[in-house]
Specification:
Arc Repressor Mutant, subunit A; HTH_CRP (chains A, B); 227 residues; homodimer; DNA-binding; five-stranded antiparallel sheet; DNA-binding transcription factor activity (chains A, B); four-stranded antiparallel sheet
Chain lengths: 227, 227
DNA sequence: CGGAGTGTTGATAAGAGTCAATACTAGTGG
DNA sequence: CCACTAGTATTGACTCTTATCAACACTCCG
């Protein structure tokens, strides 16, 4: 197997805090780390949801498949993001590591137990679910009504908000991943990026095609029509 | 104004129960009814969310608009459905009555107050939000990856589950509404329905085009590829 | 260096959109 | 009650965006 198991330090970093747990409210929640190689599955659709995950390093894609192989990526999970949070017992997406990825694991059951008594934790669960819902709602508008250029512009702006360490954005995902996120083909994504390049809105850095510089955020925002 | 205001009977019907409230847990939550005429707005996007709603009779569409008028309907709310539940302070959709519609109103604040103390209510809020999330996730797959025929088939099956009083389904919404829900044009929806009619999968009842009979659910499910 | 994986670009096809004509339905008022 | 009208639905002809198929280029590894 490709898994490397390590025990987390006892001084909690920030994952439990993200659920609104204070050090006093819950002393011991199983907290481990796993590392997944590029392209490996973290969990499958309809598998029982035993853990909730937080990305420590790397990037993850969550997707659904139709029976003939068509794929729709519902979300990308980047460093710090929590994913795999389901209310029912089973996962509604398949999650895969896009690149080598280390995640923190929280047992779902321990989380639920705490939520039963701690209203603060319960509220945070609701808040996180609501954020996911809001993202899905915005994405429905993109998938249902935006043109290919608008979709790619929206994608770049979203990633800029979430990744941009500096002016340059290092995308972990391939053109195919972007296409399956935006409901397009990889060729259409490539053409849209070329077009934005011609227009002087974005630039490519170095010799890789995944390092993108946003030269004109203003114009990108104009291309991506807002609601 | 088009509003008719009535006070609800003191014996709670089922709306508060839907939030997990027992008669003992909370005696008084403001509970009123409003009636909206066909086509009128119940609330607008970005308006502050003062109430949560439950459809008593009628039907509601929730949608987002792009600046140039393109519309994406995120959900239809039918009898019994609760909508307008936002975590943030403001609505993320515009809600309109599709036909004359009566709703029950619950003050958002009173709901929040109860949720702070009553874990049961908080859990029900989470559960409802999760159901909305699940619907949005499934709809992303439809919008991103399904063909027009698959979308219309999926729509009919969804409505069949939710409306079908008998074998016949009386759709409250127009072809345009269906189109904006499925990310298509009304012409494409009409053609898909005609095609399903030719194929003997559905039938039209009486002299209206909105009464549809599902003649072959099996084949409909085959057309709508599942994940 | 070689080969697999990834990305770009071009030619063509197909599905859905647009525009337009017509039919059907429901609501209005004489 | 019927005729008129506005709104809604269907269908056809044509266009356009995006998908598909294919060739080629680049990059990252071993």
């Amino acid at each position: 197997m490709f898994l490397r198991i390590t025990t987390a330090p006892l001084s909690l970093p920030n994952s439990l805090n993200d659920f609104g747990m204070t050090s006093s409210s819950n002393p011991i929640v199983s907290l481990n780390e796993f590392t997944y190689k590029k392209g490996t599955e973290i969990y499958g659709e309809k598998e029982s949801a035993e853990y909730v995950y937080q990305v420590k390093t790397g990037a993850v894609r969550s997707y659904k498949l139709l029976s003939d192989g068509r794929r729709q990526i519902g979300a990308f999970h980047l460093v710090g993001d929590i994913f795999g949070l389901e209310n029912g017992a089973s996962h509604r997406f398949t999650a895969e590591a896009i690149v080598e990825t280390t995640v923190r694991l929280i047992r779902r059951q321990s989380l639920e137990t705490v939520a039963d008594s701690d209203v603060m934790v319960a509220k945070n669960l609701l808040c996180m679910t609501t954020n996911n819902l809001q993202h899905a709602e915005d994405h429905m508008l993109l998938l249902g009504r935006k043109t290919s250029l608008e979709r790619v512009a929206a994608f770049l702006l979203e990633m800029d908000k979430r990744i941009a360490a500096s002016a340059v954005m290092a995308l972990p995902m391939s053109r195919r991943d972007i296409a399956d996120y935006l409901g397009l083909t990889l060729e259409t994504v490539s053409r849209a990026l070329s077009r934005l390049h011609e227009l002087g809105v974005i630039g490519f850095l170095g010799n890789t095609q995944r390092q993108i510089v946003l030269l004109d955020r203003q114009q990108l925002a104009t291309i991506d029509l807002q609601d």
